[in-house]
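Table S2 (continued). Query chain:
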Amino acid sequence: MARDYYGILGVAAGASDQEIKRAYRKKARELHPDVNPDAEDEFKEVTTAYEVLTDPEKRRIVDAGGDPLAGPGGGGFGGDPFGAGGLGDIFQTFFGGGGGGFGGGRGPRGRVRPGEPALVGVTLDLEEIAAGARKEITVDTAVLCDTCTGSGTRDNSKPVTCATCHGAGEIQAVQRSFLGQVMTVRECPECRGVGETIPDPCLKCGGDGRVRSRRSMTVKIPAGVQDGMRVRLSGQGEVGPGGGPAGDLYVEVSEAADDVFVRDRDDLHCTVRVPMVDAALGTEITVDTVLGGTATVAVEPGTQPGTVVRVRGQGLPHLNSGIRGDLHAHLEVVVPKKVDQRQTELLESLRDAGEDTVELVTASSTAAAGGGLFSKLRNAFAGR
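Corresponding output:
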């Protein structure tokens, strides 16, 4: 006679999946052996009924009046209460998981694995950034063991299958919970997930296939790099466990502050102090550039304080293209603090011959002149 799986859970034959799940959870809490030690058999029956009714094919057999667990190989109440895949189905229903995490296994991860990347830093001044540089760096990282050449074994010995996990790389254990028996999987502590051990390890690397070492090397930094950029050296990083392929080495550039120039991408800015007379009459100023040459800054007659003179092609080279940015010279007109008798007479003559007078700046006069400091001040205070 077919078992009444619906009756075991206390639901109607047409119950929905949600009703079946709620009924099972309620009974599982009441009958779990940790709560009710005398109800272990009933707990198994409830769990088996739930496993049957949540399997569409098995439930179809039940609804047709049959018993999917009857007959040879059918399981029944005396066997594993979860059946084939029952535990995975239960965890998938409640936690959205199931499958490989609960008994499916991930398998050994392999003893030979790729290495991690390494990072070192270098500091460049503006001249080195402009011309490019070759810098000597020191790297502390893992290198291939030269005794075993990465095998991790001594002489001609070979790795053997781990006796604890039998090559699986992981250990399975059964724990009891309110849902029944729960299968957990953890990394094998003996082989650390590799699935094999080395009975006779290399004396130098201890079986890891690599050793720590400090080495020096020269790295070429291209012209035009910016602060924070990284130069990648493929395969120059850390050798992996078991002599695995090395990761990459990254060289991060830091830009040192310059006494003369301020950088804005490929452009350079500097401040040039111009005597008042030179600003009035005009002159030329020679500026040493970062590439060892000179640039001429032309000061036009009547140059006003704050004027910026742009010299094209005298900045930094653009990374990869080599096209140079511009040099921006910010002119600061210097008024003498002290003048002698002769200078005073000359300045008075200049004042008398000129047309400029002291004037209080107004909004209308500023607008007529095309804007200026007055407009900037008014806009600044209006924004408060």
